[in-house]
Specification:
The chain is of the alpha+beta class and 432 residues long. The protein is built from eleven helices and 16 strands. 27% of the residues lie in helices and 22% in strands. It binds FE2/S2 (inorganic) cluster and fe (ii) ion (FE2).
Amino acid sequence: MTEARGDSALPVSAEALLDRLLAEHKPGYALARAFQTDPGMYQLDLERIWRRGWLFVGHACQVMRPGDYIVFDVDVDSLIVIRGDRGQLHALHNTCRHRGMKICQTEEGQAARLVCPYHQWAYGRDGRLLACGGMDRDGDLDRRAFALHGAHVREVGGLIFVCLAAEPPPFEAASGALGSMLEPQGLERAKVAAVRHYTVRANWKLVWENNRECWHCAANHPQYVKANYDDAPLDDVHLRAQIAARAEATSAGLRVHGLTIDYQEAGMAPFPAPGRWWSINRTPLVPGWVTESMDGQPVAPRMGRYPTRDVGTLRMRTMPNFWSPASGDHVVSTRLTPAGPETTRIQVQWLVDAEAVEGRDYRLETLLPFWELTSEQDWQLCEQNQAGVRSRAFTPGPYSTKREYNVVRWTEWYLGEMTRPARGVHDGRSLP
Ligand code: FES
Ligand SMILES: [Fe+2]
């Protein structure tokens, strides 16, 4: 595999700024404004997080046939994730080896060969240069030296991840847990029923901070709190007993099929932890709700090999760019990508069983609103949060240990990644 090597020399001032911010940071308090606004800090985020870790790209069901591809942009980089001739996936940098033209312009597509629109250099699905007709040096051009640059790609449980680093972090532990928990959901046999794209005027870290607590839910997500126990404080003893009873009732129908409700606490499952970039758990819905829809009633046919309607929700998250709650009849996946110090691009997809037919088996009017409303309410909160953090008067305030324990964890994870030594040669400063 060839590696893409951008010029990643960072301005010294960004590193100096990080050192100062780290020295000033109070554990248990919000991050300083510069983390959410400064262009140099944004570049450090790209270098130390987005170009190091595993990034969620999309779903295997989007690229089932050889030649199906998804284009995935991460700041200045663009990848083509394409199904190869023998079924394996390839992640290829979307920049022509001739003069750098972006080869695929659309978000997804189908291609027998990847043909650059500028001068028609043609690449195979594995990135090999097949033709560069018209080159006056065609005869002595070594085509093997001009394959598209590659990136790492993995597929697990119907999810696709890529890594831009030369030496990616381990994937096996995440793969084992995600793979076994996702198996009954049947994501490989799903289809995308709807997709929404958002450009959110907030730093990607504020989007995660918003996602990692549900203290804001009661006041901002009236539909969401009807279905879930997420907004309760972690030590709510009364609610814990109710959740345990509900979990037991749901588990009773699932256990014979090898499934269980493994998270039975009030509040959200603790995540992330330093060095731990993935998690997955199943948790119950409130009594009377069998799916995350506006009224809790089914909105699509059962997915995968679920034996019953009530399977709680299967929830997964991977740092730095993915979360997905899955009900027994549909899955909603959210993908973040950074697009500037104060801009995050967000894609939300709704998936149902591959055989389900719109109008007959599901209707978008009932499938979408629960998570469409919740998402858009959150994006608005994030933008207003960014606007307030931008103020010269902003000073970081304390997190609640009972309501924002996951924001504390998130901040520790983030600062840990920012101060972790680089692996391999992916960090431009250690390139020869
Ligand atoms: S830039 Fe791609 S063929 Fe010329
Ligand atoms: Fe929210």
